[in-house]
Amino acid sequence: MTLPPPDPQFVLRGTSAAVHTLHFSCGGPEPDIPLLFSGSENGFVHVWNLKTHRVDTALDGHGRKSVYCVKTMGGKDRLLSQGRDQRICLWDLAEGRTSVTDSVFTEHVGFCRCSLLKVAQGRWLMAMAARSSEEVQILELPSKTSVCTLKPEVGAKLGMPMCLKLWQLSCGAQPVLLAGYEDGSVVLWNVSTGKALSRLICHQEPVMSLDFDSEKAKGISGSSEKVLSIWSLNEQQNLQFKAQGHQSESLGTSVVTPVKAGTEHSRGT
To answer: How far apart are alpha carbons 148 and 19 in whole angstroms?
Structure first.
């Protein structure tokens, strides 16, 4: 029997619209205040103070189009948000600033969230779905220089990229990208060469979410089905199917996150 969810410690109210994404920033030492960033259907990003349980700042940068991805970039003062206006906005929130400092126009009409990887102090790689329906573009930030475009082989018919995960095999290693596609497959890409290293069909429906634990070389993915898939990466950089995991009570899983204890948590929508 499934246990009921625990009672909330507190409830945050005041977005005036449905919330589509959440991101915590709680890693700083005292007296740093833990924050929660939320992106809403009305285009606002709210910065919640988790001590006062109130909104510190409301950011308006997506033309009242839904915000479906929010990430901090090395600290709570640097923020990235992505919305249905086909823009990825960069924010500098230091000293009370609330305006967009830069943006990237994605030209992609889907809802694939971008992925970030810090490669040096002040330098990031960002993967995002490209204008062409099957391609993924890699940019360097903050310069917005194009690093490469990842294109499936002719005839592969993967469909659109649905979810992305940039990471490194080890410190200083070449970056790689895991991408989940519309045809239900997960592909491992070498970002430096622009070549696909391995492909694994994990689902019968589009891959809606994935995550990867680089220490355990183990990943998990969810789709519009109820069942999650668990897979691994061997020393030859080949993806291998392990098992079908937890069956969600809801149809579809929009976010999955492995935890260090070896279990997987998911959020279905």
So the answer is: 33
Copy the structure tokens of residue 96.
Answer: 């009370």
Give dist(CA 192, CA 173) in Å, integer. Answer: 10
Name which CATH class applies to 11-105: mainly beta
* Ranges 108-112, 178-182, 185-189: which has the least confidence: 108-112
**pTM reported for the whole predicted model:** 0.88
Instruction: Round the average pLDDT of the chain to a whole number and report it.
Output: 87
> Which CATH number, 3.30.420.310, 3.40.1280.10, 2.130.10.10, 3.40.30.10, labels domain 112-261?
2.130.10.10
CB 202 within 8 A of CB 221: yes
Counting every residue written for the chain, the total comes to 269
Domain extents in the chain: 11-105, 112-261
Contact 2, 249 (CB under 8 A): yes
Q: Please name which of 86, 96, 111 lies closest in space to residue 21, comparing C-alpha atoms.
A: 111
pLDDT for the residue 266: 37
* Preceding peptide of 6 cis, ω within 30°: no
Please give the residue that has the higher pLDDT: either 170 or 173.
Answer: 173
pLDDT value of position 169: 76
The whole-angstrom separation of Cα 153 and Cα 167 is 22
- The CA-atom distances, in angstroms, between 146 and each of 71, 92, 115, 128, 268 are 21, 22, 15, 11, 33
